[in-house]
Design brief:
Number of strands: 12
Shape: elongated
CATH superfamily of the largest domain: Hsp33 domain
Helix content: 25-40%
Bound molecules: zinc ion
CATH architecture of the largest domain: 3-Layer(bab) Sandwich
Number of helices: 10
Order of helices and strands: EEHHEEEHEEHEEHHHEHHEEH
Distance between the termini: 49 Å
Number of domains: 2
Largest sheet: 5 strands, antiparallel
Length: about 290
Amino acid sequence: MLNLARSITKDGSAFSVAIDATDIVSKIQEIHHTSAAVSIALGRLTVAGSMMGALLKNDQDSLTLRIKGNGTAGNLIVVSNGMGFVKSYVDNPSAGMLTNDCGGIDIQKVVGSNGMLSVVKNIGLKQPYNSQVPLISGEIGEDITNYYVTSEQIPTVCALGVLLNEDSTVKCAGGFLIQLLPYADESVIDIIEKNMTNIKSVSKMLDEGMSPQEISLKVLEGTTPNLLDEREVIYKCDCDRARTERILMSLDATEIKNMINEGKPINVECHFCNSKHTFDIGDLKRILALKS
Ligand SMILES: [Zn+2]
């Protein structure tokens, strides 16, 4: 399914990205067994990560979003490549079913309202681009918007939504992102602002059956927008045995010797997909020999 679409206004003043991430957030639940509140929080961050990744220039570029807040979920991490393929991790997937005053799920309590959002972009330069901004709400959409405005000076609208069924499975999830390009026309800005005051929530639009293509055009309605492209994005972990071996290789020789002396094979579990990579004593001896 083509679940990520990008559109641009006719005059090139602004562009939009929209995603249907229902399958991606379902996959997060399957892998991490997240509570309802964490499904929403990590789901929102993952939706943002995929769209932000899809804005990178090259497919092999990557982007890491990390929220380190004072909420009960602990660290929330999303890694996306330049195609928008994502993987996510949370310290405490079962963090509480806390409710706010209206009886809804309080995302702020699991994310935290104090903390930092960090964005690391690997775009083929010697040093990765690295930026941190304080959380402003812990609702994630506003925090991403604030990151773009304060850190990259790009006027941005970011809307994220994860809607759960009564049994906490994912009904729909997705988001959209609008950004102004330099020297954006004032009249286009006015139209987009007006669109934003009238638009339905992104989860409502998805729930009503709108496609990412339709949403990406809808948010730019009135500016004669054109569809730029559509693609399929999925939850995908790129871990493998060779990568895990490189991590072992980076350990101290004494640490590897200790593992060998214990005489048991070791299992290295990937935090993003729960795959286990096993290294027996022979493997550990080979790795130790390669180090010296
Ligand atoms: Zn993995």
